[in-house]
Amino acid sequence: MEKIVGFLNTAMKKGAFTLLCIFLIGISCKKETSGYVPPPPPPPPPVIDSVSIFGTQAPTGKTENDSTGGGIFGIELGVKFRSSVNGKVEAVRFYKTPGNNGAHTAQLYAGDGTLLASQVYGNETDSGWQTLFLSAPISINANTTYVACYFSSLGNYISTANGLKTAVTNSVLTALADSTDGLNGVYKYTNQPSLPDSSHLSNNYWVDVIVSH
């Protein structure tokens, strides 16, 4: 009987010792955990700024249409612009006044006349800024001339005389003053999208771009 009691005492002591060890280990882990400092969160992605030349500005006046004869019914209208930093043209936009019916095609040209992008507008509103986001943004170089334009299939447009007689600058973008790099406020009578190469009264035809940088 004494052997059994001794065995039980020994077993109880071992069990108590085991529980004590588990308790002490738990306290130790809790102390270590309480001092744990999580790593800082990853930095947020860089903010990409985007800007347009004319912002929320809007022209006054009504839709115009030049009768040219000779079976030419369309017109292409554009603006020469530069960015002071490298960037990407995300969209080409134009201001539409009531009555500017027909199909419209956005285009972007390099200064040497190379076509960089051409897409047809869809889901236009009756008036206001019409924005076409390019299927693939076009990279542009700083301080380099580009031409943003749109083709109006029925020859409708809005213009502001002498609107580009002086440069128009917003943030990193500048619509060049007429004669800074050749003509500006450019147009061309045509029945299909084509690089505009004429100018009249330094007109602003309210063509614009959205550039990210």
Written overview of the protein:
This protein is an alpha+beta fold and 213 residues long. It folds into 2 domains: 1-33; 50-212, Jelly Rolls (Sandwich). The protein has 1 helix and 14 strands, in the order H-E-E-E-E-E-E-E-E-E-E-E-E-E-E. The strands form 3 sheets. Strands 3, 5, 6, 8, 10, 11, 12 and 13 form an 8-stranded antiparallel β-sheet that branches. It has a 4-stranded antiparallel β-sheet with strand order 1-14-4-7, with no helix packed on it. Strands 2-9 form a two-stranded antiparallel sheet. It is globular, with a radius of gyration of 34 Å. The chain starts with a helix and ends with a strand.
Provide the fold topology.
Elements (H helix, E strand, L loop, with lengths): L1 H33 L15 E3 L11 E2 L9 E9 L3 E10 L7 E7 L4 E6 L7 E13 L5 E7 L3 E2 L10 E3 L2 E3 L10 E4 L8 E2 L7 E6 L1
Antiparallel strand pairs: 1-14, 2-9, 3-8, 3-11, 3-12, 4-7, 4-14, 5-6, 5-8, 10-11, 12-13
In terms of DSSP E residues, the strand content is 35-45%
Shape: globular
**Rg value:** 34 Å
Largest sheet: 8 strands, antiparallel
Count of helical stretches? 1
Known CATH architecture of the largest domain: Sandwich
- The low-confidence parts are 1-9
The total tally of domains equals 2
Structural class: alpha+beta
The percent of residues in helical segments reads 10-25%
